[in-house]
Design brief:
It is built from 2 helices and 9 strands; from the N terminus they run ααβββββββββ. By secondary structure, it is an alpha+beta fold. It has 2 domains: 2-67; 70-198, Immunoglobulin-like, CATH 2.60.40. Strand 7 and strand 8 (192-195) form a beta hairpin. The termini are far apart. This is Lipoprotein.
């Protein structure tokens, strides 16, 4: 009788062990279901990136009218320049920006746009030779530079290849308040009449 009881006890213990194992396995599977609840968190970055993408689109939309706006165009042989903006900032300077397109059959470096000033010679192919002219006030404004002689302008670190377009900018001292019409000139380009707009 004691042997039978021992066998029954062992069977009961085995059944309990198997049942416990199954319960733990089911609980483990339940944890996997809880992991699915984490999926929204994983998708959160994608939704935030989508929001970021929307923000980028909004920024592009606000920037597009400015870049599409053409204040002036000038040509010198196969090189054409477009001025897209001339913005007066509160710091007492004007930032002029636009694009240059090489329509020629060879690469273009912008060497003839460099300044003749000894202080700016190290800038190489750049807009260091650009200027703004206030015809009414009879004043010429040269590109700003830092104490090391580096112009506050685009430096063409490489050539503008055939058919390529490159963005550029140059900063100048601001003409007096109320002066909005000036001429922009660089290299052998003919002067281009532009209007300065007020910054925010």
């Amino acid at each position: 009788m004691s042997i039978r009881r021992t066998i029954k006890t062992r069977r009961a213990m085995t059944a309990v062990a198997i049942t416990t194992g199954l319960v733990l396995a089911v609980a483990g599977c339940g944890g996997g279901d809880g992991g699915d609840e984490d999926k929204p968190d994983k998708s959160a970055p994608s939704s935030s990136s989508a929001k970021n993408g929307e923000g980028d689109d909004e920024q592009k939309q606000t920037q597009t009218p400015e870049t599409d706006k053409v204040l002036a165009e000038a040509k010198d042989g196969d090189i054409s320049v477009v001025v897209n903006s001339a913005l007066r900032d509160g710091g007492g300077f004007v930032t002029v920006s636009g694009t240059v397109t090489n329509n020629g059959s060879q690469s273009w470096l912008g060497a003839n746009w460099a300044s003749d000033e000894r202080e700016l010679r190290s800038n190489g192919g750049s807009l260091s030779g650009a200027s703004l002219v206030d015809n009414d006030g009879k004043k010429k404004y040269l590109v700003l530079r830092d104490t090391s002689g580096r112009c506050l302008c685009t430096k063409f670190n490489g050539r503008v290849k055939q058919g390529d377009t490159a963005n550029w900018f140059a900063q100048f001292p601001a003409p007096p308040e109320g002066t909005s019409k000036v001429s922009f000139q660089v290299g052998s380009m003919p002067p281009a009449s532009i209007e300065i707009s007020e910054g925010e």
